[in-house]
């Protein structure tokens, strides 16, 4: 199967009308880097990123850097979210003194504070509408204890290894989501995209401060603009201003350079 990553961007479950230049190539380059970086932990679906290895219709310049040839899998119908910091919906539940998807916290936390240990909180892959957050136990009951435990362990191991690499290069991976599938022999395989600004919350380590909403390399910049202009979730939005598009594109490019150590070639 060939996967092509476009420059489209979504926020608050709306695909925005304005594309982010080179975003697809950034996401593709990051995923490919992480697939190679983590292949000793868990197998992945990657076969080739060379368009010459793909069917003829993909052997064009427009697909270079944004298409990958992958092994088709039986996909597991869950997103596996690893959270390393007290933030977002977890922080909202924590402030109310409520457990979060089966997790309770003994110590006191501030917003954006690092957790004592990362946690795994799956969500179901909904065919329509929103994905639904569930507990780890729910996923294990559905998939079986053995497979559920394998998925949890693989997600945590990949997160921790990649977290350490990113931290050395000035980026904090606050949380991320993984998707897995099974090959024809029933082996667990990492699939979809991995640790990109679209599937993760990346913070700038140089300005990170507990108790704040840290500066971000992910979609948060464009989300914030939408919220400030009362456009969050509005399906009728007409366009995104040029300066917001340019700034978002620059953040994506800076992110890929920090993590891979290379400028993206076009």
Tell me about the largest β-sheet.
8 strands, mixed
Average predicted confidence as pLDDT = 94
Number of helices: 6
Order of helices and strands: EEEHEEEEEHEEHHEEEHH
Classify the secondary structure makeup into a structural class: alpha+beta
Identify the quaternary structure here. Answer: single chain
Number of strands: 13
Q: What gyration radius follows from the Cα positions, in whole Å?
A: 19 Å
Apparent shape: globular
Quick overview:
With 266 residues, this protein is of the alpha+beta class.
Layout of SSEs?
Blueprint: E1 2-4, E2 10-11, E3 14-15, H1 23-37, E4 43-44, E5 46-48, E6 67-70, E7 74-75, E8 78-85, H2 88-95, E9 114-124, E10 132-133, H3 136-143, H4 145-168, E11 171-182, E12 188-191, E13 200-204, H5 220-228, H6 242-260
Parallel strand pairs: 4-12
Antiparallel strand pairs: 1-6, 2-3, 5-6, 7-11, 8-9, 8-11, 9-10, 11-12, 11-13
Please describe what this structure looks like.
There is one protein chain. The chain is of the alpha+beta class and 266 residues long. It is 31% helix and 23% strand. The chain has six helices and 13 strands. The protein has helices spanning 23-37, 88-95, 136-143, 145-168, 220-228, 242-260, and strands at residues 2-4, 10-11, 14-15, 43-44, 46-48, 67-70, 74-75, 78-85, 114-124, 132-133, 171-182, 188-191, 200-204. Strands 4, 7, 8, 9, 10, 11, 12 and 13 form an eight-stranded mixed beta sheet that branches. The chain has a three-stranded antiparallel beta sheet with strand order 1-6-5, covered by helices on one side. A two-stranded antiparallel sheet has the order 2-3. α1 (23-37) runs parallel beside α6 (242-260). The two termini are 24 Å apart. The mean pLDDT is 94.
């Amino acid at each position: 199967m060939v996967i092509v990553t476009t420059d489209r961007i979504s926020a608050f479950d709306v695909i925005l009308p304005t594309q982010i230049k080179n975003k697809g190539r950034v996401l593709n380059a990051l995923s490919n880097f992480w697939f190679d970086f983590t292949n000793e932990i868990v197998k992945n679906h990657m076969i080739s990123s060379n368009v010459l290895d793909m069917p003829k219709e993909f052997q064009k310049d427009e697909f270079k850097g944004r298409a990958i040839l992958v092994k088709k899998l039986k996909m597991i119908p869950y997103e596996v979210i690893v959270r390393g910091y007290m933030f977002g919906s977890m922080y909202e539940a924590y402030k109310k003194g409520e457990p979060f998807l089966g997790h309770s916290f003994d110590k006191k936390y501030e917003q954006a504070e690092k957790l004592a240990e990362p946690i795994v909180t799956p969500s179901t892959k909904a065919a329509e509408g929103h994905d639904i957050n569930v507990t780890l136990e729910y996923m294990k009951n559905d998939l079986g204890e053995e497979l559920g435990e394998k998925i949890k362990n693989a997600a945590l191991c990949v997160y921790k290894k990649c977290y350490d690499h990113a931290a050395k290069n000035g980026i904090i991976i606050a949380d991320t989501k993984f998707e897995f599938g099974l090959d024809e022999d029933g082996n667990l395989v990492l699939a979809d995209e991995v640790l990109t600004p679209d599937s993760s919350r990346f913070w700038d380590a140089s300005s990170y401060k507990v108790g704040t909403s840290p500066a971000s390399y992910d979609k948060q910049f464009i989300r914030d603009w939408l919220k400030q202009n009362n456009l969050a979730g509005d399906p009728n939005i007409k366009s995104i201003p040029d300066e917001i598009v340019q700034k978002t594109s620059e953040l994506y490019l800076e992110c890929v350079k920090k993590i891979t150590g290379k400028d993206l070639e076009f």
